[in-house]
Amino acid sequence: MQACKYDAPNNVTREDSMARTEDIKVGSVMTTSPVTVDADDTVSDAIAKIRRHRVKEIPVLSKGVPVGLVSYSSFIERRSVPINAKVSSIMLPVSRLKEGDSVLDAAEILVASGIRGAPVVRGNRLVGFVSRTDLIRLMPSISEMRVLKVRDIMTAEPISVTPDEFVGRAQVMMEGLNEKALPVVGDGGKLVGIVGMTEVMDAVWSPKGDQPQRSPKPPRKVFDARTRAQIRVGSVMTRGVVRVTPDDNLGRVVDLMLDRGLSTLPVTEEDRLVGVVDQSDLMEQLLSLRLRDEVFVQISGMTIHEPDVLDGLYSLIGKGMKRIAKMERPTVFYLHLTTYDHEGLASKFSIRARMNTDARMYYVRGAGWDLYKTTSDLLETLEGKVRREKEKEQDRRQKR
Questions:
Q1: What pLDDT does residue 344 have?
Q2: 255, 264 in Cβ contact below 8 A?
Q3: Which residues is 97 bridged to in the sheet?
């Protein structure tokens, strides 16, 4: 994560709201008795705990000290890991929080590091765990958040799959999009279900996946290419989907996520899919409360690990944010990059971006063979959207 600096205007209302939120400390919202797994436990043990407790991630301990995190992402990134391998071989690095850290500090760390939760320590010892869910639970109590509608925070025109597609394709799409669930649509864009990493894990963890049907043994590996190829999305998706409408408020979104244990909610109008709202969208709204002289910028999905390339992208984004700041104050900018490699050809890039400003949220997409040009074109499109919104505001004022 890196931020782009620019001069920001003062806004007393936002300063007051941010100050109140900044006063809320991690120790008051953390889970004090989290589910944990030991570094020497097996992958099988970790998967069993995730499924039994219906959690998305578990802190990994070594002699009581947090040393990592396991989540669905851990298993996805290491598809062929044996289930008797040690958890230490697949755990993800994790930042640690302290009880006195503010919830905005916690939100920034979770978003910047791309993790869904972090251990809270006193000294080196685990005393709690803070997840996105813990932070999202606060949002309806924040005055600026209460007035938000689903249409203000949702991702419009979401990527979806059909019931006839294979689970393997859905999994690859979720990996590429950095999403944990995808809506399933039928004829006319009608929402018919949702499929997430939970359903994928349940499908490939079933004895049907890698053993004869009557065998009680689990699969030998977490994921198996043949298994995924044989399973249709329609056979594992969740039907009777919990959904919201564009006019529902943020409080309803939070209530549904907490009551039903959901991280993604499809948005529909007359059963037709028009968007999705997930915990990432909510976290970005929470981050937008933090007043700063910089835009919080996050880039995910990078497969090119050359510092010059990343610096070039941040430079382009920084210039784009400065231009936009002359019209609206940007607070959070998120860019996700998907790379499609073509044998014997250069890579093609697909980019999705969303930006929070003091006024609203914007979404743009782009694709092309040149990463810098594609990013530059995307930022120009974003700038154009902001300009059009400002022109609409001016027209409305003149008509009053």
A1: 53
A2: no
A3: 120
Burial 62-73 (b: 16+ CB within 10 A, else e): eeeebbbbbbbb
Does 371 share its domain with 267?
Answer: no
Q: In sequence order, what are the beta bridge partners of 88?
A: none
Ranges 137-151, 182-196, 229-243, most confident: 182-196
Cα 348 from Cα 367, distance rounded (Å): 7
Which of 104, 136, 168 lies at the terminal end of a domain, its last residue? 136
The CATH number given to whatever domain includes residue 317 is 3.30.160.100
Amino acid at 54: R
What average pLDDT score do residues 226-252 get? 85
State the Cα–Cα distance between residues 29 and 21, nearest whole angstrom.
12
Is residue 82 situated within a structural domain? yes
Q: Taking a C-beta distance cutoff of 8 angstroms, is the pair 237, 163 a contact?
A: yes
Alpha-carbon distance 129 to 134, whole Å? 9
Shared domain check, 278 and 300: no
Q: Is residue 198 part of a domain?
A: yes
- The structure tokens 């298994």 sit at 227
DSSP 8-state secondary structure symbol assigned to residue 140: G
Which position has the token pair 């939070």?
254
Asked if 356 and 288 count as a contact pair (C-beta separation under 8 A), the reply is yes
List pLDDT tens digits, range 81-138: 777 889 998 888 888 999 999 998 898 888 877 788 999 999 989 999 999 999 999 8
Nearest to 4 by CA among 371, 345, 292, 295: 295
- Asked whether residue 236 falls in the same domain as residue 359, the answer is no
Output DSSP code: residue 212. -
* Cβ density class 248-274: b for 16+ within 10 Å, e for less: bbbebbbebbeeeebbbbbbbeeeebb
Q: What are phi and psi of 188, to 5 degrees?
A: 70, 20
18 located within any domain: no
Expressed as residue numbers, the domain containing 340 is: 293-399
Confidence of residue 77 (pLDDT cuts 50, 70, 90): low
**Cα 352 from Cα 299, distance rounded (Å):** 10
388 or 358: whose pLDDT is higher? 388
Span of 7-11, 25-29, 42-46, 245-249 with lowest mean pLDDT: 7-11
Per-residue model confidence (pLDDT) at position 214 = 40
